[in-house]
Write a structure and sequence with these properties.
There is one protein chain. It contains two helices and 80 strands. It is mainly β. Among the domains are: 147 residues, Sandwich (Immunoglobulin-like); 147 residues, no CATH class; 95 residues, no CATH class. 52% of the residues are buried.
């Protein structure tokens, strides 16, 4: 490892402070979408901490070829991968290797167009290397075993030669060469395990065989040190899996497979002296076993092609507690009863938050094909996606920090069960107690006198779980518990916080007639705990609300407010509803008050979207900008639009529109952006050229806090670009990971401590970060707080780093948090000379990988001005 000073010197001399970035779909909500069977999994540390590795028949369409590692966000390739199926993986320190390596076995013979890797290979963290000349047949199992001189790798499978010499379906590798293990076996060997049967650790093998040389050994055999021994296995059909299980009564060896005539069909346990039944057995083959938990109290998991264990329904996966078999909670709902099988299990998979991972040929729900995770017995999709559509967003710096709240029609977020509403902190999902029992359609943050809280509106009847309370259509979450501000007799679709001159109030609208016993035709106001009607209300449903300096706007399917004609859009001002400009000819679905320098000279407008075509005087095509009196068409927009936002991804601020508009040969689909003259698809198309997501977009939100930076999309899609990102996605521009400072200037007289915050993301958790600064001015140097800092030319404004001690200084050094956040405190002394007035302090952040001695992330730069 290079020294830190050397690392800093090299990096600071070479790196630009300006973040080099291309707008792209972020993997924060990625769901791994492997496109082929997963046959094997294991945990291995290649220098990034323990991670889950998977091998199978998947291809580069998954982003990795036949072997991949899960880094907490997505599957990552291991070099060029392998050119044939991977059936076995093992993490082991073999021979003179300085640390554990990953070993893969299968039906491959190379990697990409390069290395000659015949059925077995070693990954050293950077490249694949061969194990001698390899084997002449497929490898089905790998395990490390100490034969007395240190760990060796044992390979089993279908081969008859190892390193060019005879080796009947099993062989050992000592780091330098291959050696046969006795007479081997007469048929494929597919399972290996190490188990202490009372006489020290022994190597066990299982498979299709009946003999080792001329000796009968059944389907399970034990290595004596010189030969394979029969252990009396009473099976006439193949053993497919072996595992050591340390539970009540001590450790035992469990065998599973295709044997259906044993007392417990398809599974049995070996005490070292006898084979015994393990419960009532299964109704189909068992292909995988995994033990997890503390010694003496481990849980045994089984995976396969079964539907039941005994009379208990538990498709494809089951668990034994040491007392009895149990169903895997929602296995009935998650795994199909017909087709597919679980072939691999991994206990406590790293960077998933789950207890168990399953791989195989099954197709569960949508993208959980080939791979799934179990948390508290509940199965779900890995990654940060949703199992249903997100319909609304709200950002709130709640008692626990900045967070994005998401509501919709989903029940799971990542592997967490959340029931239609969830909290995202930039790295992890968490539930709001037990969630709610129906769709969430609108969110808003409001302080009604008891402190800021999140108001949740929709078509539900109550909050669920131990915090469950009735609250039809509207509930309030204070960061810890639910409360009901008042029940509605219909659906709530929109929320807004607006001050009409009497103080901030919460407005709720939808399709109801009463709130908490107060008559209110489709719109009501909550202020200081008191509900009231808002004028005469409306004769049809309200779909959208928007607070503006011009008043409160409501859009929907209504035509009148009392006797006043209010076709589809109305403004509430001076206590009454008024028509809003020329009459539209169709319903309004979305309202957004937006401003950007690129549009209307920076003046804000009310952007109106819906099912209308014109305002009676001009064609609008379902989307227009309203200035309080007139509409301005926005080119030829896609329709229908359901969500709007202004966002700058580094190419200038543009208007983004999401909706239910399908792609066509000439128009973008589901998501589009407008530059003031033309509509374009967002780059990164899931459907070539015309769509960047593959389904309707219902909500858009631009993150305000650096932790939540980017444009968030919610909807009924499964992919964003080429990234599997179900229900929610994030389009990240060059502002992602921005370094921010709490103030743009500081007084020379008062000084003070300034806070700089950065969010490189959870991929960099634990990495070393540096916040560095530079000063610009007219003199050759400056002394600040007794420390001399040389100055560099005004070219510093181009944000190019100079060499150490030639224009930069260290403001803070530390490690990125587990959530991917970091911050620096910059102390500016008081009573500085007035001659420093106008000096600018530029700061930027760097994140280092000390293992390779390189900068792996850089931020933008921020300016702090010294003022009199």
């Amino acid at each position: 490892m290079r020294s830190l000073s050397c690392c800093l010197a090299t990096a600071l001399a070479a790196e630009s402070w300006a973040q080099s970035c291309v707008p792209q779909w972020n993997e924060a909500f990625a769901t791994p979408a492997l496109d082929g069977a997963v046959w094997t999994m294991c945990t291995h540390d290649a220098g990034n901490g323990p991670e889950l590795y998977a091998g199978g028949s998947f291809t580069p369409a998954s982003g990795a070829e036949r072997v991949a590692r899960w880094d907490g966000l997505a599957w990552r390739p291991l070099g060029a991968g392998l050119n044939g199926s991977v059936f076995a993986l093992a993490s082991a320190q073999i021979g003179a290797a300085p640390r554990a390596r990953l070993y893969a076995g299968g039906a491959f013979n190379g990697s990409g167009g390069g290395a000659n890797l015949v059925r077995v290979a070693c990954w050293d963290g950077a490249q694949w290397t061969p194990l001698g000349t390899g084997l002449n047949g497929a490898v089905r199992a790998l395990v490390a075993f100490d034969f007395g001189g240190g760990n060796e790798l044992v390979a089993a499978g279908e081969f008859t030669q190892a390193g060019g010499a005879p080796a009947a379906r099993i062989a050992r590798w000592n780091g330098a060469g291959w050696q046969a293990l006795g007479a081997g076996f007469d048929a494929p060997t597919v399972a290996l395990a190490v188990y202490d049967d009372g006489n020290g650790a022994r190597l066990y093998a299982g498979g299709y065989f009946a003999k080792s040389g001329t000796a009968q050994v059944g389907k399970v055999a034990r290595w004596s040190g010189t030969a394979w021994q029969d252990v009396g296995a009473p099976f006439t059909q193949p053993v497919l899996a072996l595992a050591r299980w340390d539970t009540l009564g001590g450790a035992r060896l469990v065998a599973a497979g295709m044997f259906s005539t044993f007392a417990s069909p398809y599974i049995a346990q070996w005490s070292g002296a006898s084979w015994d039944a393990l419960g009532a057995g299964f109704d189909g083959p068992v292909h995988a076993l995994a033990a997890r938990g503390p010694a003496g109290a481990q849980i045994l998991n089984a995976g396969g092609a079964f539907a039941q264990v005994g009379a208990l329904s538990t498709p494809r996966v089951a668990r034994h507690t040491g007392f009895a078999w149990q169903a895997e909670a929602d296995a009935d709902a998650y795994f199909p009863l017909a087709g597919g099988s679980v072939y691999a299990l991994a206990p406590d998979p790293p960077k998933t938050g789950a207890e168990l991972a399953a791989g195989g040929t099954f197709t569960a729900t949508d993208l959980s094909r080939w791979f799934a995770l179990s948390t508290s017995g509940l199965w779900g999709e890995p990654g940060g996606g949703l199992d249903g559509a997100a319909l609304c967003f709200a950002e709130w710096n709640d008692p626990f920090g900045p967070a994005l709240y998401v509501g919709g029609e989903f029940k799971k977020a990542g592997s967490a069960t959340v029931e239609r509403i969830a909290r995202w902190n930039g790295a992890q999902w968490s539930p709001l107690a037990g969630g709610v029992d129906g769709a969430v359609r609108a969110l808003a943050v409001h302080d009604d006198g008891a402190g800021a809280a999140l108001y949740v509106a929709g078509s539900f009847q109550a909050a669920l779980g131990s915090h469950g309370i009735p609250g039809a259509g509207l509930l309030c979450w204070n960061g810890n518990a639910w409360s009901a501000p008042g029940s509605l007799d219909g659906e709530a679709r929109a929320l807004a916080v607006h001050d009409d001159g009497s103080g901030a109030a919460l407005y709720v609208a939808g399709d109801f007639q009463n709130v908490a016993g107060v008559a209110a035709a489709r719109i009501a106001r909550l202020q200081n705990g008191v509900w009231s009607a808002v004028g005469t209300g409306f004769d049809g449903g309200v779909n959208a609300l928007q607070s503006t300096p011009l008043g409160l706007y409501a859009g929907g399917a209504f035509q009148f407010g009392g006797a006043t004609a209010l076709p589809f859009l109305a403004r509430h001002v001076q206590g009454a509803w008024q028509p809003a400009g020329p009459a539209l000819d169709g319903a309004v679905h979305e309202l957004a008050w937006l401003a950007a320098p690129e549009f209307f000279g920076g003046e804000p407008r009310l952007y109106v979207a819906g099912a209308f075509n014109s305002d009676g005087a001009q064609a609008l095509g379902g989307l227009a900008a309203f200035d309080g009196s007139q509409y301005t068409p926005l080119g030829t927009p896609p329709a229908p639009v359901r969500a709007l936002a202004m966002y700058d991804d580094g190419s200038g601020t543009q208007l983004y529109a999401g909706g239910a508009f399908a792609p066509s040969a000439s128009a973008p689909g589901w998501l589009a952006r407008y530059d003031g003259a033309h509509w374009f698809a967002v780059p990164g198309a899931a459907q070539p050229g015309v769509a960047s997501v593959d389904g309707a977009v219902h909500a858009l939100h631009v993150g305000a806090d650096p932790v939540l930076a980017g444009l968030h999309l919610g909807g009924a899609f499964h992919f964003a670009g080429v990234i599997a990102s179900k229900g929610i996605a994030q389009w990240s521009g060059c502002a992602q990971g921005t370094l921010v400072i709490n103030t743009p200037e500081v007084s020379l007289a008062q000084g003070g401590t300034q806070t700089l915050k950065l969010a490189p993301g959870p991929n960099y958790a634990g990495a070393l970060y540096l916040v560095a600064g530079s000063l610009t001015g007219a003199t050759p140097g400056i002394v600040l707080d007794g420390v001399a800092y040389p100055l560099v030319p005004d070219a510093w404004t181009a944000l190019v780093l100079g060499a150490p001690n030639q224009g930069w200084y260290q403001a803070n050094l530390g490690f990125v948090s587990s959530l991917g956040h970091a911050q620096a405190a910059l102390a500016i002394p008081a009573d500085l000379s007035a001659s420093f007035a106008g000096f600018k302090l530029w700061h930027a952040a760097l994140v280092f990988d000390l293992f390779i001695g390189q900068v792996v992330w850089t931020s933008n730069a921020v300016e702090l001005v010294l003022v009199p």
